Amino acid sequence: MSSVKMEDFVSLLAQLSSTDVRRFRAAVKCPSPMNCLNVTLRPPFLESHLSNSYTIQSISRVVNQKILKASSSSQAIISSFNYTVVQRNLTGDGHARKVIMDIESLYQAVVGDNSSHLETKWAESIASTLRIDIRRIKKPSVARGIIYNFTVTLPFEEEPALSAEEITLMLLESTKYGELTLLGEKGQPVNISPLTYDNLVELQVIKETNALVIVLSIVISTTLVIFLLFLSGAVLVKIRTDRVIEEVNFSSNLNKLACQLMIL
Q1: Which residues of the chain have pLDDT under 50?
Q2: Global pTM?
Q3: What's the CATH number for 96-204?
């Protein structure tokens, strides 16, 4: 099967299964003598797209009901159809991520004089494409260049546990395959440079800061304890001194009273 025929075959499969052809990527013919075709089905990136599970069901219907054979001029016959779930390689570090995106356009032409509106607009577009909660994207900012920065936070308790690491990898893939669309201030599409791993910055908690806080806490606590001990000691000394003075005064008063009695 030539590359042209593969493209025609994939296009027909997309049409019959009501799937956006852009979701089929990396079509490769299996090595000889195997007569098969490997295609990667991308996750949905538009609101109108069905999930991968429903798309697989639609493709399976096309294959099992021989719809593809009846619609194909090449008389291609599919004897079997199977799929495997592609898992992303994740480290599972549990940290947030900062994303740095390069926009290949002039700042004034794209951003204009209202950068804050565009920052929010792009965050909403990214959240919609990746199908994540908009609250996961924090502190979006547009700098001259054009560089669009934002932070992907950790998952909330009430939503599926989709890590910031996996979200940023999904974003990397969407820029690689041209699935992400960002519009300028005047509604024109902007050119997005495909993300690389260098554009994804892991945000780690600085351990030295925690150690410094612990040391400061220990120093302050020790100083407070020493001060309290010193204050307690001073109070005790004061009490003992007062008692001694009272005893001396009492003895002096008794001596005076005895002298007075003897004189009388």
Answers
A1: 70
A2: 0.68
A3: 3.30.70
